[in-house]
Amino acid sequence: MRQASSFEAIDFPALSERPAKLRRVTAADAIFEGLYADIVSLRMPPGMALQEKRIADEFGVSRTPVREALLRLSEGGLVDIYPQSGTVVSRIPVSAIPEAVVVRKALESTTVERAARIAQLHDIARLDAIIARQKALTVVGDASSFHEEDEVFHQALTQIAGYPGIWTILKTVKVQIDRARRLTLPALGRMDNVVPEHIAIRDAIAAHDAEAARDAMLHHLSAVIPDVAELRTRYPDYFC
């Protein structure tokens, strides 16, 4: 009998058992992600001045990674850099929102149709848990946490559909919508409307009705546009 080689004797772990490759996070990455979250959540509102030295001191780094992070934010339309003058958080461009909604409708309607066709009972239970949390947050008026659960709901739909990469695309596309929506939830009572809209999407998926799921998603996303005009009146300094 042929003796097994040392290579053949190795018991390689299954792919699912191997540790995931860790992404190396640089100082610039950490600063970018921190500022990104603050800008999108409006903790740093449009028009706010950003000081390189202050950011560098806060993160305990030199100004070089701060500048790198600010350049990335500028490329994403979240900050305006004025040479010799400084950097400010960008205003929300109203003209960019309708186009972003069109992209969201195209991608998410396709995603939810797929989810409706293949969703299983545990997928519906996952959506139910998210909706339950949103109901509880509506009662206490926690708009910030509600928005985070809204993100979880839409991301879950892409995962249920087997299209997780679509969520990565959507996060970039909808960044200006997200900034505007942070104003719609407390100012225009959107939380009270979002929950039944999510329930309609969930029910259509549970019924494996792809057409109804698509229609419910399109109705849900269409609600973003009418809010913008009123928001611009309420917060004229936030939009351009």
TrEMBL record:
Can you give the residue ranges of the HTH gntR-type domain? Answer: 25-92
Membrane-crossing segments per the record = none
Return the SUPFAM superfamilies for the record. Answer: GntR ligand-binding domain-like, Winged helix' DNA-binding domain
Q: Which Pfam families match?
A: FCD, GntR
Does the keyword Transcription belong to this entry? yes
Keywords, alphabetical = DNA-binding, Plasmid, Transcription, Transcription regulation
Q: Which InterPro entries does its entry note? A: GntR_C, TF_FadR/GntR_C, Tscrpt_reg_HTH_GntR, WH-like_DNA-bd_sf, WH_DNA-bd_sf
Q: Which GO terms describe its molecular function?
A: DNA binding; DNA-binding transcription factor activity
Q: SMART domains this protein is in?
A: FCD, HTH_GNTR
**Its domain of life?**
Bacteria
**Name of the molecule in the record:** GntR family transcriptional regulator
What species was this sequence derived from?
A: Rhizobium sullae (Rhizobium hedysari)
